[in-house]
Fold these 2 entries.
Entry 1:
Amino acid sequence: MQPFTKEVIRIIQNIPSGKVMTYGQVARLAGNPRGARQVARILHSLSKKYQLPWHRVINARGEIVISDHELFTEQKRNLELEGVEVSPEGKVNLHIYQVQN
DNA sequence: CCATTGACTCGGA
DNA sequence: GTCCGAGCCAATG
């Protein structure tokens, strides 16, 4: 387990309810500007072990981009439960909901 | 050890 | 505004 990965986990756990961050944003804060895909992969494989709020992380365009339909629906539902508006296509308004640093 | 796998991003067309 | 190609790199098997 690399330091970068631990940082990513810590950052994800600190995202407040009702807010979202992008993969790239998390990667930059964790010290690896090019590590967006690693963030994605970390969530994909480690979200259960570390009980991460993975649904609060979306891509740079403010969209839920997930291949698995079940997970897509789950993420959309979880965000809406926290008061985040999500369009049927999975778009979120980053200007309103993104955590700024 | 080497190859594959991605919930991505950026810049250019 | 959209689409595409190249780059990215830790985890996993």
Entry 2:
Amino acid sequence: MSMQQVYGAEHVYLEGVQPPSGLGAVGPVVHIAPGCEIYAEGDDADLFYKVVSGVVRICKFLSDGRRQIESFHAEGEIFGLEAADAHRFTAEAVSDCTLIAYRRRNLASRAAADESVARELFAHAMDSLARAQDHLLVLGRRSAMEKLASFLAEWADAAPDHRRFTLAMTRQDIADYLGLTIETVSRTFTQLEKDAVISIPTPREIRLTDPAALRRLNA
Amino acid sequence: MSMQQVYGAEHVYLEGVQPPSGLGAVGPVVHIAPGCEIYAEGDDADLFYKVVSGVVRICKFLSDGRRQIESFHAEGEIFGLEAADAHRFTAEAVSDCTLIAYRRRNLASRAAADESVARELFAHAMDSLARAQDHLLVLGRRSAMEKLASFLAEWADAAPDHRRFTLAMTRQDIADYLGLTIETVSRTFTQLEKDAVISIPTPREIRLTDPAALRRLNA
DNA sequence: CGTGAGTTTGACGCTGTTCAATACTTGTGG
DNA sequence: CCACAAGTATTGAACAGCGTCAAACTCACG
């Protein structure tokens, strides 16, 4: 967690980029280096974002240094939209990221004027809720093995090749997402490889050698 | 978990009751006995509810019998509103409950016609999200003692007398909410009493003898 | 009283944490 | 091209917290 800001966020207004939805005018395009903060807990929540490329983590820090990652966001996903005026979590780039920023200001009036905007906002909120609820189930009553299996299945589903994919995040990120320690995550990866469920060419590369076995672990 | 349906849900249209919001015409008023199901996972999600009195639990059952309680809902709270056509969780009455049912049908068109409805729906979704996220933090990286302390603090805050309140739910419910076993919950209650943080006149009655100590446990 | 649901308590074991050491990976400069 | 450093990952051993199993207790209700 000793990450340093390599270069700050560049805010660039891109011309000719089509707004991907009715959420607002074309927002500024932002580039963020790995490990850098996008916003911090308590920051003014005037902006929210859509991921163009890269992976973002949404997390919270406890007073004693423990960290809980609430979610990861990949290409096409929206994050950082709040009901209140301040961000409730911290957002950081996991990998090199390109984002589009949207202004929350006037969002309510825009939603009132355009039904499709209201619908999109509501759909986004309900989708975020469903994800949080799924995550909650994983954290609540599952073993380390089941937690890691569900994590890998999730990323396998999202990958173009469902049997081979690259993890953007470190073991520490995975541990903080699943409510485990880095050692347990590492040991569980090793166990899955011994059981011939996955192979790990490099720590970030995962190949599912037995996808069915992985799904069976999701009790 | 050997609960039986004492008497079925009575659907009664009450005349003269004012709709508490623009969510729809006055819905049917429903009475549910403790332990009875309101809807099951997979049921058609045509209705959602507002609690008039009593406490409801929203939960999911795993194949091996484990249960995770996603949330409790008390007076004035809305639950059961889904984005999709089927309920993603099961809802059951913890105590004797009175509910108002709302039809989801045409909700989108009503939201389009009345901005305040759209606003209320979005606010509800964001509030549910915030609660799920808070719960997630508790489940992720906290000891049994911290989990129970945050649970008690939550109910103390909601109670009229913040220092004395009645728990509607059993130890098993608390365990399934916090991702613990009933034995650990019970032992932790006893420990808190030994530490003079709370006193437990009866298992369901909690008195906070040292509220500050309780808050200090919420790392 | 007797019964049953809910709760508490005890003894023991396993899963995951903690602490510590080692290996791997990547980038930097000689 | 190699040596070195820093970040990241793996592995081991000892420990602790929580789960499991089992029994006893409490209280409401018949």
